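I am writing to request your help with a piece of structural work I have in hand. Here, with my thanks, is the record as I have it:
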Amino acid sequence: MELLEQEIRKAPIARFGDYEYFISPISDGIPHITPELLEEVTGEIIQIGDLNCDKIVTIEAMGIHLATALSLRTRLPFNVIRKRKYGLEGEIEFQQRTGYSKQAMYVNGLEKGDRVVMIDDVISTGGTLRGIIPVLKNAGVEIVDIIIVINKGNGKAEIEEEFGINIKTLVDVNIINGRIEVMGSRN
């Protein structure tokens, strides 16, 4: 995970109230996502993931490039949980609460019995997964695996304990005294 770690280490930090947010290619597309970085991350997801599923599910917006690359490599279709209401039959609305925002999100195109792998860029507070997991379970969707590229903070541990699931991550980071520290990665 050499390229990923390099990009994270040089990422600028923005503040949203008390929340410190790092800005990196994988989590924000800034300054840009190189094909090499996307290939490195996608290759690692394929190595660690249980991709015996029907669909890849991601969350708008910064999981879309990850799901696209993974879909192209695995030939699995992907579904995007959106921030926009479409009013389609069967649409499910839920609230997403992150470390810096709250908003409604919408699930369309998933059916009872679908086996999915969830892919996203960052987990920090766990607010996004805390909203999505019960919605998918209540809809009869089986979550086969959850893979998040970057783990920041306590959200991963809290979600694992709360829902009795395992979340796989590629790299652990923390922001200490205004600096990003890479605590460890799979390599």
